[in-house]
Each structure stands twice: as structure tokens, then as C-alpha cells.
Amino acid sequence: MKRAYNFNAGPSALPEVVLQQAQEELLNFQETGMSVMELSHRSGEFENVHNEAQDLLKELLHIPENYDVLFLQGGASLQFSMIPMNFLNDNQTGNYVLTGVWSEKAIKEAKILGRKTAVAASTKEEHYNRIPTLSELLISQEDAYLHITSNNTIYGTQWKEYPETPVLIADMSSDILSKPLPIERFAMIYAGAQKNLGPSGVTVVIIRKDLLEKAPTSSTPTVLRYDTHANNNSLYNTPPTFSIYMLNKVLHWVKDQGGVEAIAQTNQRKAKLLYDVIDQSNGFYRGHSQEASRSLMNITFQLPSEELTKKFLSEAKNAGFVGLSGHRSVGGCRASTYNAVPYEACLALQQFMSTFQQDNQ
Ligand SMILES: Cc1ncc(COP(=O)(O)O)c(C=O)c1O
């Protein structure tokens, strides 16, 4: 069976070998006589999977001892609400950098809760085609936190350096584990799994332990408090066991590839293939992002007309490429080149783009 060239923005490609392993183990996980989905989440077998996934993530990202790794549900979107619920008491301000729709959604939840917010910077006027420079940010030492979206999935922009501030919180849904990270610079990182970590269903939170001591407001429901999950090793209620099992397998795969450092090099080579074809096209392909903010995960580009875009997408589909339509708010095309998208798929897309240009300009 031929696998598609999968450039979906999320859920997205998973490593083929991980899918094969899951298939092999599906009916009988580790001689238990049942699938991992049928195990109790309190069983020794599942706890091993769960704890090993936490340990692997700590190892791969060099997460220091003073951080907890949590596995939650509700996607990155629920984090938009949990963050103000847990960290914003009366009179404290949550400061947000607006670099796209996801950051707008994050600040919106704090506002719905009636908490105070500020905008450190916004590039909305420029159609979110860049990340603000650090000197543009209006940050106060009084802020309860500064929230950023490290990679903007829709626009194809990515932070290259991070602000220096005591409580930095980052939505890393679309670039976690794609490159080494200075974890100590962050108070909290969160990510829905469905791009670089595994299938949808689990949200990874990496949180500095001192933040857990900050009492959330008394009206915060138990299941929405970070300390509830930290105190119960993310087993306060039934976790998404199959998603955590797949996350465990993806983390093993990253380790087998040589770790995050090796993955980052491959990601750079993959993105370069596509940015090169854009840059050498004499304006036939135009990138949405300004060059300095270009994402290595989501490569967004426009063609000269709506008609050519439709033709491009239709011919690409016939050639086996999936997921290349741009988000409806930006239009054009987008290739998501997450960790599990093979170099060969990007090479094939580069060749397809070159040939399409030659045939249509
Ligand atoms: C950067 C970013 N943040 C948040 C989300 C929303 O994630 P979820 O669907 O897991 O709530 C997405 C989804 O694509 C995203 O790309």
C-alpha cells in the first residue's frame, strides 16, 4: 500500500514504524491478552507506559527537576481557559503577544472570565506575517505572565528567540519537540499532541513547580486546577490512555532518530527545500511570512491567482499530496512539515512545485 505524502496541519503524519508497532500490539499488549485501550489506567502495565512517556519527554527536552510534565485533555484550547483560571487573581494582568488566531483565542478566554489582560504587541495589522521583535514588546515585571504562541500554524511564522520575563507561558502546539529548547526560560509550555507528539486526545503541559503553589481562585473547579493533576501524576481521572501510549511510541521514535537535536537538523533541511523553491521562483510562489519569521513547521505560500491555486491543489492531490490547502483565513497553500513528515515527501513536493511552475508560468 502506498502511503500519502501527508502535509496536514494537524492531526498530521505519524511515523510509519510507530503505526506498525501499534498495529502489531493492538490485540495483545505485552502478553496481557488485551489491547492497551482495554487496560485499567491504574494497572502496572499502563502506569509503565505513562511514566515512561513522562521520562522520555524529560530526557529529550532536557527538562530540569523543578518542572512537572502533565498529560491533560481538552486540547490546547482548554489551556486558554485554565491559564487565567489558575494564574490570574483579582488585579493581576495576563499579558499576551498577538501573533495570530490562536493567541486571539487565548486572550479571549481570559476576558470571558473577567480577568485583566494586556497586549504586549500585535502584528494583526500586517496580517500576522511576522513575529514582533523583542524590543517591540511592552512587558511589565508586574504581569502575572506573558503568553506567546511559539509557532503560528495558520500563518507560518515562528519565534526564533524568546522574551526574557519571569513567567513566560508558551503555546507550543505546532513546534514542540521540533528543536532543542531553553526550558528554563519558560514557566509553562503546553501543546496539543496532534502535530509533533502523537494523535489528538492528550495535551502535554510542562510546568515549573513554583507555579503550582500559586493558589487558583476558590471558584476554579478541581479538574481545571494544575495542582490537582500534578499531585495525582496526571491520573486524577481517567487519562486518554491510547493517546498516551502513542505519545510514548513517538517519543521512542524521536530518540531513535538521534533526539531533538538530530530531528531539528532534518527539519531545517526539509523546510529549506520548500523555501528554496519559493525564493527561486521569481515571485511565482510568494511566502506569507516575512523571511525573518519563517516557520520551519508550516510553510505558507500564495500562487499568482486563485485559478492557479485551485489548479495547483487539484494536480497536487492527483500526485498523492494531501493537506496543502492554506487555512481559510490566509488562503493560498500551506505545507506542514512536522517531525514525522519524511525528507523524501518534502523533496517530492519541491520537485512538484518546480514542475508546476515551469508548466504554468
Ligand atoms: C498553535 C495552536 N494552538 C492551539 C491550537 C488548538 O489546539 P486544540 O485543537 O488541541 O485545542 C492549535 C490547533 O491547530 C494550534 O495550531
Core attributes:
361 residues, alpha/beta, seven-stranded mixed β-sheet, three-stranded antiparallel β-sheet, 10 helices, 36% helix, binds pyridoxal-5'-phosphate
Question: What report would you give on this structure?
Answer:
Strand 6 (151-152) and strand 7 (157-158) form a beta hairpin. The protein is globular, with a radius of gyration of 21 Å. It has 361 residues and is α/β, with parallel strands linked by helices. It is 36% helix and 16% strand. Helix 2 (44-61) packs across helix 7 (241-256) and helix 8 runs parallel beside helix 10 (343-360). It has helices spanning 16-25, 44-61, 75-87, 101-112, 209-212, 226-231, 241-256, 259-279, 306-318, 343-360, and strands at residues 5-6, 67-72, 93-98, 116-122, 145-149, 151-152, 157-158, 168-171, 188-192, 203-208, 286-287, 298-302, 321-322, 333-336. The chain binds pyridoxal-5'-phosphate. Residues 10, 75-77, 102, 149, 153, 171, 173-174, 192 line the site of pyridoxal-5'-phosphate.
